């Protein structure tokens, strides 16, 4: 049995964690973000189960190590919020969930694309007021148009399969072609051509130094005036300030964002009674053709169930002294 504290736990996620871990371990679920102000709440807990919005820099990791933590297991695929070098230096083991249902994110990306294309949020808002006019609600068929997929891993491939089902022409960009996407008829092109020709651009790349702001002012300038941009991957892929300026100029038919580069401390929380101090996010919210959700693309029973099961396996591996595909920093012997 191990003492475990899980951070950033949602109401829907808690029973899944309790069923997977509560019977064999001492588990405490918190809705807090793990950061320098809350790190002391992990004192005495051997295992910290983190979320993607937690701050696990060297300062926090040192507090965790001093408090007796041995393992940090992140309930996410991304881990750019964890200082792995500091964890290694401090003797902390680190694991993540290397994969879960790619369909959860791909389907949500399509939900955003369809919603902004067919003006669904505006239509719903109108009909709630019994305004049933069609003025300003005209969208376009995706059939026959071009889908640009930036990043063709498991999620990008799932997105491309759906695009192929719509009868779209497929363009892709990645470090190397994915045979599954090639089999769908995808043509791999350079970034400039991807941005220039895409009617719908969907981002599915990891956030790395070389992909930070990969969609910047220059990329947005290359895009068609009536293109749609969807980001369900990482906020830092898209330069939000450049996006605001592009929208102010009347360019882009629609934007769907499930992630935002400054989302930490905002997404997953109720900020409805507070003043929004992020001017860029506040400005994005004013555009009628922009739809923003709160990093929920992964949030299905299937995907979260897989994440919880993988997390339980990571903990079991750690306690047994094993490493696996989810290991980022091995336990120090």
What is the helix fraction of residues, given as a range? Answer: 25-40%
- Tell me how many strands there are: 13
- How far is the first residue's CA from the last residue's CA? 20 Å
Strand order of the largest sheet: 8-7-6-9-10-11-12
**Computed structural class:** alpha/beta
Largest beta sheet, briefly? 7 strands, parallel
Q: Give the percentage of residues in beta strands.
A: 5-15%
Provide the CATH topology of the largest domain.
Answer: Rossmann fold
CA radius of gyration: 21 Å
| Low-pLDDT sequence parts | none
**For the record, what is the CATH homologous superfamily label of the largest domain?**
NAD(P)-binding Rossmann-like Domain
Q: What is the correct CATH architecture of the largest domain?
A: 3-Layer(aba) Sandwich
Q: What is the CATH C level class of the largest domain, in words? A: Alpha Beta
- Indicate how many domains the architecture comprises: 2
Choose one word for the global shape. Answer: globular
SSE pattern, N- to C-terminal: EHEEHEHEHHEHEHEHEHEHEHEHE
Mean pLDDT: 95
Helical stretch count? 12
Family: Belongs to the D-isomer specific 2-hydroxyacid dehydrogenase family.
Protein name: 2-hydroxyacid dehydrogenase
InterPro entries: D-isomer_2_OHA_DH_cat_dom, D-isomer_DH_CS, D-isomer_DH_CS1, D-isomer_DH_NAD-bd, D-LDH-like, NAD(P)-bd_dom_sf
Keywords: NAD, Oxidoreductase
């Amino acid at each position: 049995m191990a003492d475990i504290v899980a951070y950033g736990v949602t109401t829907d996620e808690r029973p899944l964690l309790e069923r997977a871990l509560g019977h064999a371990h001492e588990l405490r679920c918190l809705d807090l973000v793990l950061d320098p102000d809350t790190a002391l709440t992990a004192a005495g807990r051997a295992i910290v189960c983190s979320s993607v919005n937690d701050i696990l820099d060297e300062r926090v990791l040192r507090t965790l190590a001093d408090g007796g933590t041995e393992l940090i297991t992140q309930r996410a695929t991304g881990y750019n919020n964890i200082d792995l070098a500091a964890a290694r230096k401090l003797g902390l083991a680190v694991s993540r969930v290397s994969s879960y249902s790619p369909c959860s994110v791909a389907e949500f990306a399509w939900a955003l694309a369809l919603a902004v294309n067919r003006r669904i949020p505006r239509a719903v808002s109108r009909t709630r007021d019994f305004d049933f006019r069609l003025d300003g609600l005209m969208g376009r068929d995706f059939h026959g148009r071009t889908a640009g997929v930036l990043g063709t891993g498991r999620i990008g491939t799932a997105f491309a399969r759906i695009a192929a089902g719509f009868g779209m022409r497929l363009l892709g960009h990645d470090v190397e072609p994915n045979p599954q996407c090639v089999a769908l008829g995808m043509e791999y092109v350079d970034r400039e051509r991807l941005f220039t020709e895409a009617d719908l651009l969907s981002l599915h790349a990891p956030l790395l130094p070389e992909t930070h702001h990969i969609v910047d002012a220059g990329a947005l300038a290359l895009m068609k005036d009536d293109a749609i941009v969807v980001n369900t991957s990482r906020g830092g892929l898209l330069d939000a300030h450049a996006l605001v300026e592009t929208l102010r100029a009347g360019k882009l038919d629609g934007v769907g964002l499930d992630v935002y580069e400054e989302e930490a401390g905002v997404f997953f929380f109720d900020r409805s009674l507070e003043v929004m101090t992020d001017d860029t996010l506040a400005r994005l919210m004013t555009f009628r053709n922009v739809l923003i959700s709160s990093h929920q693309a992964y949030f299905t029973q299937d995907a979260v169930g897989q994440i919880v099961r993988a997390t339980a396996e990571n903990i079991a591996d750690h306690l047994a002294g094993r490493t696996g595909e989810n290991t980022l920093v091995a336990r120090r012997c």
